[in-house]
Amino acid sequence: LTPHGCDRFWLMMLALSLFPTTYSPPSSHELAAVAPTLLALVERAVSEPEALAAELSESPLAAIAPTFALPDVAPTDPAAAGDLPIVVTHGMGDSCFNPGMQSVVALAGKTLGVEAVCVPTGDNQASDTINGFLMNMDKSVEAFAKRVQSDKRLSGGFDAFGLSQGNNIIRGYIAAYNDPPVRNFLSICGINAGVAAFPHCAPSTPVLGSICEALTEVLGKLAYNPIVQDILFQANYFRDPTRRNSSEYLSHSRLALWNGERPGVDMSARKARWAKVERFVWVEGSRDSMVWPRQGEQWGDVPSGYPKQLSPVPYNETRWYTEDTFGLQTAGKAGKNFFESFDGDHIRFTSAELQGWLKKYFK
Can you tell me whether residue 159 is helix, strand or coil? Predict the structure, then answer.
């Protein structure tokens, strides 16, 4: 290797060592050949993590939690009090260490009079933010599970809610672990059925910064490249409606595996863990401009006639429901699926709305 190549190799190895993995990491040369802009972000995760985290937080894709004022929260009504702790996960570009997420967690705990905690995938604000981009879904679930299983407060089970892509982590934990168990799962603007586009980085929108540049680079023909899937969280839930029946999507997409779309995969254990949850609450932002189609937050799907047809398929007419590919139909027939909405953009709910959902479902 040239001196520059050596530096790049060791930066790549150090960056990947930050992210627990059961996969064989790609070499810097492999990633450079496939996605040089993505490689540059991986290198920056080591050389300037604080600057990269700040750029992620300011990118058009960032899903930053609202900040709520706790003095507005009334004392918990004993009739509305919960009996299990609450676990919360954040969206892309956000962090458990940020004021907004801390206020959301504090509001949830005070509303039900229980312990509430935001579980990060990194040890500090910078790594937690970066991991929401450069740690894929399976690795993020693994990191989340380790923290949950080592927290004695959660050993008896917990209720959980996520914001935006944080719901992928909770959903993945339920399917792969669910020990200690999730009793109730509240998904607020979750990227549950994936996204068919990233509107804030769409061709019609000026590309803003290296984050959109990286997504533009890989979310085309490279989206289901194993190297990209091994790194990029957003590539894992990108569900290109023109390629969802392709061998590349079915063989390599993390979402295809999670949704039971990959042929020949035994989903029985995952479905059994899914069935242990008492309530699933799917919350949609009625004016969500981040997730397309927004009905995917409640398991709707892009129609087979896309792009001539754009009206989403209702959740109970989708393949993953009618064939019960991962347990959604079983939960529905058991009366476990609930649907809520709020009049607003992506995760722009009010404190009163959050309190209402918690009091209604987390007790």
Answer: strand
